[in-house]
Amino acid sequence: MGRPVTSRLERWLAPAVPLARLAVVRRLLALFVLADIALLTADVVPHAKGPDELYQPLLLRRALDLPAPGPAYVEGLAAVLVVAALVVAVGRLPRLAGAVLAVAFLDWVSIAFSYGKIDHDHFALVVGLFAVATVGPAGLRDPRTSAAAGFALRAVQVACVATYFLSAVAKVRFGGWGWATGATFAWAMSRRGTQLGDVLAQFPWLLRAGQWGVLVMEALTPALLFVRARWQAVGATVLVGFHLATWAATRIHFLPLVVCLAAFLPLERIVPAVTGLRRRRATPRRAADASRPAAAGAPACGPPRA
Amino acid sequence: MDLPLTRRALLWRGVALAAVTAGAAYGSLRGVDDHWPFAPMSQFAFRTDPDGEVRAAFVMAVDARGDRRELALTNETVGMNRAEVEGQLEGFRSRPERLAALADAWAALHPDRPRLVRVELLERVTRMRGGRLLDPVQEPVAAWGAP
């Protein structure tokens, strides 16, 4: 009875997904890389101009025997990233430019994390860039279903879920089972609190309840890999809400991870919706098609549909 | 399915994803930061004692004109951000002369501004009681003066 189990696993691993959905996510990730290197990991450039002494290369860089990055190297790398990201974003050479983008971004982020601190918000994005590069050409309006696209999006989903679930694992590993009864949120508010954070810090019980909520939420995220599309969208929206709240209280944003949550949404509906709205002389049939994605794109705002 | 994958194409994809996932799991169960991208997802994973304290590093600097002020610990000011400085805090404590690197970075990033002649690294320590934050105090870590 191996055959049916295998095909069920195959359907999970590489579900039939419209190429258009992959096309949207791929462009989104590529464009996000531009924002990332300009804003989030921009430190790479001033780091490279600073003293080599502060550079403490990660195992990955030592294993590959990569040199301490100087200004010329990181500026060249930035140029490669920009070109590759733009080529992917316009839909050209998706495998080649996508692979260059993924490798160059891994290089870039590993430099950024070689100065004494790493962040775990980049894992899903790095995995995601490699994953979307495994799919050939995909148009924004290509309705054909593809197993390759299904796998790539599944891989992004797995990387997102791994980030959340393993955050809960790490909390138990480092903080013990009593992590949620500690004062980690108060610690965060003290170090990086916004005005909202300062207010919240006056209610230790509220912060403790929040810690329980986060731990339980993170531990439950693997369910997102097995539920229906509607609940995936709901789950992704809840997670975005969590990140918004965290950002409001501490200015910690996890944006590279948030962007990857797009892999949980039926984004192939966006392009027809946008163009449908633009075309005033849409036929009634097209207008009906266009209204559906608008609701699905913002699942938190509309009532759940059966 | 309009565009299926062959068995082989699916197999290597599945193996690759399983390997990456296993690496991430290893990172959080047994790994350390150095193993990134297979590092533990450990941001905010440490339990903080509700009756303990919160420490935050900051830097006071004196420039060639004699002005003494707090410098924001960011890559734009001194080439390192606060978390990075804190990650190397014990290194600065045992070898205060390493603070010269911050002054050098400042000079490289601000060629038009007066150079720093003294850099003091301190920690702001906020005690907690029952998870409530009390008033902070300052503790010196290391200081460097231009020779």
From TrEMBL, chain A:
Membrane topology annotation: Multi-pass membrane protein
InterPro entries, per database record: HTTM-like
Residue intervals of the HTTM-like domain: 14-269
Membrane spanning stretches: 28-48, 68-89, 96-116, 122-140, 152-170, 205-226, 233-249, 255-277
Compartmental location: Endomembrane system
Sorted UniProt keywords: Membrane, Transmembrane, Transmembrane helix
Region (Disordered): 282-306
Protein name (database record): HTTM-like domain-containing protein
Organism: Motilibacter deserti
UniProtKB/TrEMBL annotation, chain B:
The protein, known as: Uncharacterized protein
Native species: Motilibacter deserti
